[in-house]
Amino acid sequence: MSLFRVDSSIRQEGSVSRAVADTVTANWQAAHPTGEIARRDLATTPVPTDAWTDSIAGNYAGDARTPAQQQAKDLATELADELVAAESIVIGTSLYNFGVSQHLKSWIDLLLTDPRFAPGQRPLTGKTVALVIARGGGYGPGTPRDGWDHATPWLVRIFQDVLGAELTTVAAELTLAEVTPAMAELVPLAKQSQAAAHELAATTGKAFATRQTASV
Questions:
Q1: Cβ neighbours of residue 163 under 8 Å, at least 6 residues apart?
Q2: pLDDT tens, 36-89?
Q3: pTM of the model
Q4: Which 8-state DSSP code applies to residue 99?
Q5: Which of 17, 49, 85, 179 has a beta carbon 3.0–4.6 Å from 134's, enabling a disulfide?
Q6: Got the DSSP string for 131-193?
Q7: How many angstroms separate the CA atoms of 35 and 1, rounded?
């Protein structure tokens, strides 16, 4: 039994995405006390921004790869190995500037240079993935910023449609309400959203564990 967790929030303390991802992980681990959990924190150990271009160039360079290209290729292999080895995956992130975290995007871009993750390979088929995302504002249907979340749809497209994972999205909204005076009246809704996210996270962690047990 194995679970791989990726975090990309720039906050270590007070991060909602990390807290909700903790709930997924804890409920998975409760069912599999001896299960293996591997982690990668992209905020504390970010993927170098030039690794993507070096890895792509290295794919075409063959035996003529530069040391930098070979290093990038080795890192891409390491990232791919982590996902391939896991049965369940938890990805914790936040909506930054209405888009994907730079740390997470760099990780995904490099990951996709590994041959196992090339278009059409669908290497995550049969694996369960929990996408945990925290959004500072409200982006639901009918809100003033409906459609401004450019991260979640893209992440769903990559992990579900391109890579083939069975994806569950766990979202907490209005996470900035308690620290933003202009959003003070939204604090009750923010608390409701986070409570619902933790509830779904717990259910998701248990479901992932149950599925793994059934497949043994």
A1: 117, 122, 123, 124
A2: 999 999 999 999 999 999 999 999 998 899 999 999 999 999 999 999 999 999
A3: 0.94
A4: B
A5: 17
A6: EEEE-SS--STTSTTTT---SHHHHHIIIIIIT--EEEEEEE--TTGGG-GGGGGGHHHHHHH
A7: 5
Q: Are strands 166-172 and 36-41 parallel, antiparallel or unpaired?
A: unpaired
Helix/strand/coil for 27 = helix
Amino acid at 158: I
Report how far apart, in Å, the C-alpha atoms of 203 and of each of 33, 108, 130 are.
Answer: 17, 26, 11
Q: Does the pLDDT at position 7 exceed 60?
A: yes
pLDDT, average across residues 105-130: 97
- Taking the CA atoms of 22, 8, 196 and 28 in sequence, report the sign of the dihedral they define: negative
Average model confidence (pLDDT) across the chain: 95
CATH homologous superfamily of 2-215 equals Flavodoxin domain (3.40.50.360)
**Residue 211: its pLDDT value, please?**
76
CB 88 within 8 A of CB 127: yes
Q: How confident is the model at residue 214 (pLDDT cuts 50, 70, 90)?
A: low
**Quick check: 105 and 143 in contact, CB under 8 A?**
no
Tokens of 131: 């996408």
